[in-house]
């Protein structure tokens, strides 16, 4: 992986259509679930198609602190955790990313206890953890806070029927980790059905877990006493794919994401078609712009609805659609940090609470903007690719956390993008 420097920036000469084919990396979020999953077994685990992004390195470092041997070789990660040597990973590492909190469920499942401070992650709104704790408690664990750290103890977890107030993605994964080795049957009602959660459950099944219903809102787990090693491949990143498809729309281009899974992108494909973009979905997904874009309304909601992570990129694309578009964010309460940055490029875009109103079709011109979180950064890239002239994108370490080779991929599509 490239070594991000704090002052690294992208310089983009926009205004030209993106054209060509690109293959996306393994899913960032799905890959982030596989490392904690590998802690659940004493046998070796091989993970393939893992994206070369900063968050994976951080999470590998955290797993090493609890006893895992982790080797990263390109997109293959080899993990072996013969014994858990600590159930309290260092607070400063946990604070670096959101997925680190999955060590709670993984350590609880493997070692019967875990202590973690609240995790870090993008500042995109209130990100409570109640769903995780309700799940742990229903399985018989005690959960207490003390000294800024959450402590969970459950040496003998028992299956239970658990209702989630909200279908939290990481909450579902964490509770699955605790439930796979609990005694008896666990049913999670209102679980997250995201493809990344479904894949994680597939990985656990490949390790000997008994799970059914994953990929739907009701997941049933029959506890097993022990999990074994596996050799498992991570699914393609639907959010990276969506970003390139909306970049194609924004620039009036023609892009095929060769390994995109159409079934993971129903909401994106439907929205692109509504925007007047021709979409071919079969072998990958191809978006071809054949005329002016049309304005649309988008609601960012849990899967299979339109992903909150693609809200900023679609909003950037909609600045090119003459007329009024509306994006309603219904997952996070601080997802709209990108709006001011797009205004610097000339976009006519405002927020009204969680609603973003875009008067599209005006001219975008190059400027200096900041990538304020991963997806806000993606929105600035999409808009800069569509803007006339030169744009500079600062704080691209956020983009490095989510996109393995943004510059290489966009260059392959004909973009003029340099990293300085
Ligand atoms: N929520 C609760 N209670 C909880 C947990 C969450 O009410 O206990 C609510 C939150 O307030 C929020 C909503 O649920 O409104 C979504 O949170 P969720 O827990 O589902 O999100 P997450 O698991 O923390 C993952 C991804 C995010 C992605 C969301 C939603 C990872 C590491 N992160 O976060 O990805 O936006 O699911 O799909 O998997 C990104 O990739 O840039 C990113 C932020």
Write the layout of secondary structure elements.
Blueprint: E1 10-14, E2 19-22, H1 28-38, E3 45-48, H2 54-65, E4 69-73, E5 76-80, H3 91-94, H4 102-111, E6 113-116, H5 130-138, E7 142-146, E8 149-153, E9 161-163, H6 169-179, E10 185-189, H7 195-206, E11 210-212, E12 218-222, E13 230-233, H8 238-251, E14 254-257, H9 266-274, E15 278-282, E16 284-288, E17 297-300, H10 311-318, E18 323-329, H11 338-344, E19 349-352, E20 355-360, E21 368-370, H12 374-386, E22 389-394, H13 397-400, H14 406-412, E23 416-419
Parallel strand pairs: 2-14, 3-13, 9-10, 17-18, 21-22
Antiparallel strand pairs: 1-22, 1-23, 3-5, 4-5, 6-8, 7-8, 10-12, 11-12, 14-16, 15-16, 18-20, 19-20
Helix pairs in contact: 1-2, 1-7, 4-6, 5-6, 8-10, 8-12, 10-12, 11-12
The structure holds uridine-diphosphate-2(N-acetylglucosaminyl) butyric acid (EPU).
Q: Reading side by side through the largest sheet, how are the strands ordered?
A: 21-22-1-23
Summarize model confidence as the mean pLDDT: 95
The number of E-state strands comes to 23
Shape: elongated
Bound ligands, named by name, code or SMILES: uridine-diphosphate-2(N-acetylglucosaminyl) butyric acid
Derived structural class: alpha+beta
Unreliable segments (pLDDT under 50, ≥5 consecutive)?
Answer: none
Radius of gyration: 21 Å
Helix content: 25-40%
For the termini, the CA-CA separation is 16 Å
Please tally the helical runs, counting DSSP H or I stretches of 4 or more residues.
14
State which percent range the strand residues make up. Answer: 25-35%
Major sheet: 4 strands, mixed
